[in-house]
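User: I'm writing a tutorial on reading structure tokens. Could you give me a worked example: one chain, its sequence, then its tokens, then a sentence or two explaining what the tokens reveal?
Assistant: Sure. Here is the example chain.
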Amino acid sequence: MKILIDTHIFLWSLAERSKLDERRQALLQSRANSIYVSSISIAELMIKTSVGKMNIDFDRMLIAQAIAHNLPIMTDDHKIRLYDCRIL
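And here are its predicted structure tokens:
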């Protein structure tokens, strides 16, 4: 399965694995899955790091990308659940 991961899932997978439940850890570690980190997430990290948190809606850009490429999003962000996209 192809999975697009949200920015916080990317950060947790690198530094705070305990925040990911067993199901998500298994999905991320399975060689059967292709895990994608969007360039939008990278831009979000760089912008927020360089100038502090900004009010740019990176979530909507990530949702649009997931819908355009027919990918589920792995996220804990409840705002994303309001949109018509598949969530893991």
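What the tokens reveal: Residues 2-82 form one domain. The helical segments are 7-15, 22-29, 39-51, 58-68.
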